Amino acid sequence: MILKVVISVVCAVSVLTVGILIGHFGIDKGSSAPSWVNDVAKDVDEALIEKFLSEVDNMQIQENLRELTKVPHMATTPGDEQTVKLMLERWRDPETGLDDAWREEYMVYLSFPDTKNPNKVTVVSPSDTVIYTAREKEKPYTADQDDPEVVQPYAAYSPPGNPKGKLVYANQGKPSDYQELNKTVDLRGTIAITRYGGAGRAAKAINAAPYGVIGVLVYTDPLDINDGLMSDINETYPHSWYLPPSGVERGGFSTHYGDLRTPYLAAKGNHTDFADITGIPPIPIQPIGFEDAYVLICELGGEAAPADWQGAFNCSYNIGGPGFKQTSAFNSSDVKLETFNHGELKNSSNVMGVIRGSVEPDRYVIYGNHRDSWVHGAIDPSSGTSVMLELTRVLGKMVKQGKWRPRRSIIFGSWGAEEFGLIGSAEYTEQYFTKLSERTVAYINVDIAVFANATLRASGMPSVQNVIFKAAKQVNAAGMESTSVYDNWIKYSNWTSPEHGLIPKMGHLTGAGSDYAAFVHYLGITAMDISYTYDRSKTNARIYPAYHTAYDTFDYASKYIDPGFFSHQAVARTAGNVLIRLADSLVLPLNCSDYAELLEMYLSRAVDLYQTDLCLISEPLKSAVASFRSAASHLDQMILSSDLAKETPMKVRRINDQLMLLDRAFLDPLAFPDKYAFSAGMSTFPGLADAFAKAESSGQSSDWDKVHYHLSVLSQNIAGAANTLCPLFSELKKYN
Amino acid sequence: MILKVVISVVCAVSVLTVGILIGHFGIDKGSSAPSWVNDVAKDVDEALIEKFLSEVDNMQIQENLRELTKVPHMATTPGDEQTVKLMLERWRDPETGLDDAWREEYMVYLSFPDTKNPNKVTVVSPSDTVIYTAREKEKPYTADQDDPEVVQPYAAYSPPGNPKGKLVYANQGKPSDYQELNKTVDLRGTIAITRYGGAGRAAKAINAAPYGVIGVLVYTDPLDINDGLMSDINETYPHSWYLPPSGVERGGFSTHYGDLRTPYLAAKGNHTDFADITGIPPIPIQPIGFEDAYVLICELGGEAAPADWQGAFNCSYNIGGPGFKQTSAFNSSDVKLETFNHGELKNSSNVMGVIRGSVEPDRYVIYGNHRDSWVHGAIDPSSGTSVMLELTRVLGKMVKQGKWRPRRSIIFGSWGAEEFGLIGSAEYTEQYFTKLSERTVAYINVDIAVFANATLRASGMPSVQNVIFKAAKQVNAAGMESTSVYDNWIKYSNWTSPEHGLIPKMGHLTGAGSDYAAFVHYLGITAMDISYTYDRSKTNARIYPAYHTAYDTFDYASKYIDPGFFSHQAVARTAGNVLIRLADSLVLPLNCSDYAELLEMYLSRAVDLYQTDLCLISEPLKSAVASFRSAASHLDQMILSSDLAKETPMKVRRINDQLMLLDRAFLDPLAFPDKYAFSAGMSTFPGLADAFAKAESSGQSSDWDKVHYHLSVLSQNIAGAANTLCPLFSELKKYN
């Protein structure tokens, strides 16, 4: 009986168990979660980041660079087309490529010298005899530097012409330099020699023309680039990273960016020459090496130039009689400048690649760099392109193997014709303006990946500081095993933040130094620029010395910039880590409280500077900054205190949209109609600063009105940004 | 034994069943759906719409109107403040109010006459004796028309002044009218009398000044407003809806909209007078009744004006000698215009109300109307405000009772100071520019709800046609039991669409006639304007005759515009239906294929008009329109073919974002920098049409270049819009 009972109980329990099992697993509960419920809640995978970091290979980067720098690849030349094909081939590779890759073409206005009629700089006697000729090409030290495709040094967008006149030395060609010079020298009909730095390239000619100067020379002084060194016998390349005497910096000589014929419109070939081109040199300008500049400057007559105009030459820099000193062999001679540059419409390509997002394909993280160089461009831009190709190889492989698909879409851009004025990236933003503005989470720019191999350098909107720090803490510094990029960085550059204490110092993207410009100033997209850079205790070079010269080759990069390619690797790891976090994080890793901190610092600086004058720093500005801080804290608090993975994805999206669109609120195209695509109203309060400076110097009440106007613009922008951080209106409303 | 087996089996089955039940219901599967899964998939509830329609009450609307029109409520007067308080009280009602309501204040620049020194129009003899004085106030027929708060008829923003000169008749004051007049009359030092219509109010004075005209009068000709009728003994109000002889249309006389001192900036009191005010009359201008205009015009000398300048007076409209005819008692007399208007900074309020969205609180449907009138404003704007209050009562009640909460947030705006130039709505869009631009699904404007009681009239972007039609089919036409608003509408106004066949004709929001302007032209938000309007077979009145006069009262509205308030009810039901659909639909009821149809029509019209001249209609424009069509079809197809309620909410949000942001893509503030806040690039291709007209008339190649430029702008805008309809780039890319 007991047995029977036991058997019955056992049976019953078994049957019950079977029933429970059937009930639990066998019957669809109807309300069970759809498959996408887990997908939408997924966050960044730290293990995947570790895997990514371990796979980034310095030797692959080195081989990428070797491949990219085989021939000169100036924009739209056959060498450029070769790199287009290389990018497409890599990004379409079935094992390591992206989901998709294609080219986007634009018909853009470029400027070239005449290969049959090289530009010339000569000294000619009063009887028109040539008594000195500046070097037309740089002296080759290796076979590649002697490639016939090495373009003659020239100033792109300089007009053709053959001005001849007495030489003067105009320092850096700033407005104040010509103003100073004009006090003692009649500049009409002169040729001015200037050194790089202090003013934009085109500005050196634009600033000169109103004084009657008819031609401009520009060179790089050894003081500014070579820490004073000059000799290629033992001091400069090929013995070091320093610029040889015949090295010449080429460049785009325009103050605007984007295709000059089609402002605000994509250069798609449907334009006439309607748009008047402005911002280019009105008079011929030509760059020369310091070897020739030495000969010209040291023979100049007239008074000695001011102390801060003196460079590294072992002679007095005189301002010019105008012209050469009486004791010189050049006495009474003129300098003659013959330029044969011509404009040309050329087909320039961006190469685009995409990894499609799984959950939010309509959110884009864009990573880009230009592809075109002036000559071989090993550092500028191929160091960045080598890094980008290594990133896409590692990420592409994970995608192709089915191991990873980012939450958001990633777009890679290999921009064309950057050297002529950020043209490829600007045309891209013009063509896709609305779409990019509405959907882009962030833009990461890695142009020159390695200026030097000492430390990380990062610039960007304040909201990206946090994610860059996080990534930099996870990556080993170049060539170090137990020091992170972050710990190394903080040694070279730091400051004490009221909120975070001692942290590395980030830069701002205020200018138009690389392809981030159109994203920042035209679209208002959160952006950053990442590279490795100098130990400033070791050099004062304004940039790495081979910049834009024929010496920026694989040999130079691998011997003197980053032997072993460990700095390239550190940049690839750091930027890739940031990229993955932006693409995969459930909540975008953009920090609006760091934005608030910066605004508060600007405000307090503005109060210090202007308050005493006129009680200028008005209550609306103070209250706008306070609103921003309060909205930022509120949003931060909400992110920290919620388990967003468990909440509706609409809430996550809402928060992410607020973070994504924050920088758009600072964009005010209507407030600065006179500044071409420099419409960001915030940054360092530049509108206010400019207006204040002008009002202080003029004292006119209409100028003070403009100061008030800029205060209003600023207050509205910051209050508007605070508003975008709130889900609804009621948070900021006041009852009456 | 059998029994035992049976019992055992029964027991076993029972136990199994219990097990299954426990397994199924008792154990959490872990993967069961979170509660929000159903919420995010919810679509519009048709039963709720039926309930809404049934609750909209014509008598409530009538009582709202009675309340709103008790006193004159010109912007910023005590009467206006009374309506502010009324709105706040209604929207904060615990039973029928909204979630939240508050006021937003702006310090705006208005213009008023001097109550102690009324503006005067007189005829003065050469010896300066006044021989005729125009009426200073309208003749009262009811007590409210005699209210001391009835503002004297005046032209807001007309400067003060006292010009005196010979009178001329300048028709409608268009540029061509003054040009024509100037052929035979020396206009220097004259006063021009003009009739309303043909040109904007301010334009009548702005166009006159260059010819030396020193003052302008403006009146409403009975031909244009009264179907020719003139007598208040038996023809005009109080016997009909027609304008009595002394009625005068007031108005804002400026060509821009928004606060004139603070373009692009919210008028928050932190501005100086920096901004130069443009677009207002440079010479005094004053409106008068046709009673006085009759006396002045019929005495004019000179030649008879052209046939199309003649109005309804029983005399010849002569152009003026200049001045009166020799046979007139006014012979050699001047007309003297004395205006004492002054500008004033006044605190104007918007009243804002919100119903918070449940699923997507960060998506806004905005419904608005202005609150300020010129006098009692029964029709303009209180007919619309009465409708809005009835909508918020019905919707508020459902919210307060817990029966409804919309998917998206609904914002109600009761704008201030519209009559002075759409100021409240413009300042609102300036203050919240980024936030509104990023989050607003659509703007619904119901200003004058009922011009007349014949048929619905609707204008808007092409994408809203579909939802308006859907709503109009569900609502009974005013005063009809078996005819829908839609079926009634199609009888009055229709066209044959290539895609839909015979449908009602929608208008476009191209001008700045009401508060939709800033939403459309400045923000690029999808918008519509809804009202009931005339049977055009019965009247040619350019607008309802009491417009902007002292006769626009409750008596007038309830007797002659909408007795029984059935048209108000039909508008409330139709607009409310559209509002609920926009707020609640899973997929936004915005149709991009209807946009494509309109673009194709514009294209084909442009081809007809311009093709033969210069092969102008370039391939990029054609291909942009084709891309738009293809993207629209693709998106439509995706919406139709998917069961989006079952898919990830991210996909729904993506589609909705594409639909919401479509109109933003047509906004190009940089392409038309010279047109103040009229930056929509598309619409009827206005940039192209203007440029073409100018080029054809001048024949200059620089003007033809501008035509090409506008073609490029247009092509890029349309292609950009097509792009925003695609989730990624790859859909539109071309491989090389």
TrEMBL record, chains A, B:
Task: Indicate the transmembrane segments per the record.
Answer: 5-27
Which CDD domains does the entry mention?
Answer: M28_PSMA_like, PA_GCPII_like
Chief location bin? membrane
Question: Which superkingdom heads the taxonomic lineage of this protein's source?
Answer: Eukaryota
Residues covered by the Peptidase M28 domain:
350-558
What compartments host this protein? Cell membrane
Write out the entry's keywords from A to Z: Cell membrane, Membrane, Signal-anchor, Transmembrane, Transmembrane helix
Its Gene Ontology cellular component terms are: plasma membrane
InterPro entries xrefs: PA_dom_sf (IPR046450), PA_domain (IPR003137), Peptidase_M28 (IPR007484), Peptidase_M28B (IPR039373), TFR-like_dimer_dom (IPR007365), TFR-like_dimer_dom_sf (IPR036757)
Listed under subunit, the entry gives: Homodimer.
Q: Which family does it belong to?
A: Belongs to the peptidase M28 family. M28B subfamily.
Protein's recorded name: N-acetylated alpha-linked acidic dipeptidase like 1
**Record organism:** Sparus aurata (Gilthead sea bream)
